[in-house]
Amino acid sequence: MARTRSGAAGVVGMAGAAGVKAARRPEVRLPALEPYGGGELEPDGDYDGLEFREEDFVGQDGGGARFMDCVLVGCAVDETRLSRVRVLDSVLTGIRGVGTNLAEATLRDVELVDARLGGVQLHGAVLERVVVRGGKIDYLNLREARLKDVVFEDCVLVEPDFAGARLERVEFPGCVLKGADLSGASLTDVDLRGVASLEIARGVDRLAGAVISAAQLVDLGPVLAAEMGIRVEA
Hints:
Blueprint: E1 2-5, E2 11-13, E3 34-35, E4 46-48, E5 50-53, E6 66-68, E7 71-73, E8 86-93, E9 96-98, E10 106-118, E11 126-138, E12 146-153, E13 156-158, E14 166-171, E15 176-181, E16 186-191, E17 197-202, E18 210-213, H1 214-227
Parallel strand pairs: 3-5, 4-6, 5-7, 6-8, 7-8, 8-10, 9-10, 10-11, 11-12, 11-13, 12-14, 13-15, 14-16, 15-17, 16-18
Antiparallel strand pairs: 1-17, 2-18
């Protein structure tokens, strides 16, 4: 496992680049919201301009639903089935749950704040102009997902799985990444310089297209050398 510390001075692009294109952040402008009337989620439901506050969606099925211009605060989503859901121009704060199924979901212009999640299934999902700020997500499954203009900010990601994913203009300022899996991933303008603590469990050879700091390069040196078959001796 490759582990690095945050580095301040210097930028080293693994693909030889001198810089990195910044991610475009969402600009969510919500209309006046109506409170959600309660009841269970409906598959293929349409939720527009609603505020969901402290709702219990545990074990419910909202697969294929659309949430547009919505706010969700403090909702429980343990084992909630939300595959192929579309979340657009919305803010989710204090969401908590284990085993939430968001496979093949679409998140566009979304802010996810202070989430406490575990085992979230986002494989095959599409994330565009998304900010994940604060909180902790364990075992995040983003296999084969597409991430474009995504910022993970000041959050803890434990064993995030990016295997086979495509990441373009993705940033991790202030984050702790533990045991990240980059196997088969494709990275373009991915900025890792601001990571507070970086551990790469698999896929260090996929860092082409990422930008790291000089200090991170030093820390990754032995692992990169081993990957390239270079023997380093005193």
